[in-house]
């Protein structure tokens, strides 16, 4: 979120409603930049990256080789073991990226019962925002995949007052760790993916 701020109470009219239920916005207990504000955030410039947004099939790279490989709008950095070290997508002047350590392996190349574990990070223009662990487990012709978010959100360049908010209000930093992605890839049945983002913990 770039050009980020809280909504100022003075001179702002807010109408919130879900169905027939009228909502009253919460107010923030401390002034921000010497002004009273609502507990509502906004950003005039957003960089939005979607991770595994309802995929029906895994990414397939034709004629894969070590180095940078194109797959649609994605640039995949493949190492000498033919594992994906990084997946990058350009968004205007920014680059959204997922990095894997060790590299994310070719699912078809996994041997029966093989389990692979590693770590991943999500970054925008090289600024790491959060990350976690990944686990792969092959069972016959199916591979169970899990991306667990274990690393707190790291705020970027924020005004001093906002840094205090993220420091003292824990939920601002820990909310990503309440999510986990789980999926099963059927290698035999047309490479179909059954997946879901699940809430692993409520904060």
What does this structure look like?
The protein has 203 residues and is mainly beta. It has 2 domains: 1-46, no CATH class; 47-199, no CATH class. The protein is 6% helix and 49% strand. The protein has helices at residues 160-168, 171-174, and strands spanning 2-8, 16-18, 21-23, 37-45, 67-71, 74-78, 84-91, 94-104, 115-124, 127-139, 142-151, 179-186, 192-199. A hairpin with a 2-residue loop joins strand 2 and strand 3 (21-23). The chain starts with a strand and ends with a strand. The model has no long low-confidence stretch (mean pLDDT 87).
Q: What keywords describe this structure?
A:
203 residues, mainly beta, 2 domains, nine-stranded antiparallel sheet, 13 strands, elongated
**Class by SSE composition:** mainly beta
Q: What is the share of helical residues?
A: under 10%
Number of domains: 2
Our count of helices gives: 2
N-end to C-end Cα span: 22 Å
Morphology call: elongated
What amount of the residues lies in strands?
Answer: over 45%
Q: Are there runs of 5+ residues with pLDDT below 50, and where?
A: none
**DSSP strand tally:** 13
Mean pLDDT over all positions: 87
Task: Report the radius of gyration as a whole number of Å.
Answer: 21 Å
Main β-sheet, spatial strand arrangement = 5-6-7-8-9-10-11-12-13
Reading the helices and strands in chain order gives EEEEEEEEEEEHHEE
Q: Report the sheet with the most strands, covering strand number, pairing sense and barrel closure.
A: 9 strands, antiparallel
């Amino acid at each position: 979120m770039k050009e980020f701020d809280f909504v100022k109470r003075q001179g702002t009219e807010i109408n919130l409603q879900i169905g027939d239920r009228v909502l009253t916005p919460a107010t923030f207990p401390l002034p921000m930049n010497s002004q009273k504000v609502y507990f509502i955030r906004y950003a005039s410039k957003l960089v939005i990256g979607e991770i595994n947004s309802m995929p029906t099939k895994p990414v397939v790279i034709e004629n894969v080789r070590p180095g940078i490989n194109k797959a649609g709008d994605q640039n995949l950095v493949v190492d000498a073991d033919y594992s994906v070290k990084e997946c990058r997508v350009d968004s205007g002047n920014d680059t959204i990226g997922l990095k894997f350590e060790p590299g994310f392996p070719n699912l078809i190349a996994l041997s029966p019962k093989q389990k692979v574990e590693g770590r991943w990070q999500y970054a925008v223009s090289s600024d790491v925002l959060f990350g976690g662990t990944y686990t792969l487990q092959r069972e016959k012709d199916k591979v169970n995949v899990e991306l667990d978010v274990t690393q707190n959100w790291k705020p970027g360049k924020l005004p001093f007052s906002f840094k205090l908010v993220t420091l003292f209000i824990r939920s601002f930093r820990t909310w990503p760790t309440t999510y986990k992605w789980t999926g099963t890839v059927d290698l035999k049945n047309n490479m179909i993916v059954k997946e879901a983002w699940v809430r692993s913990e409520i904060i």
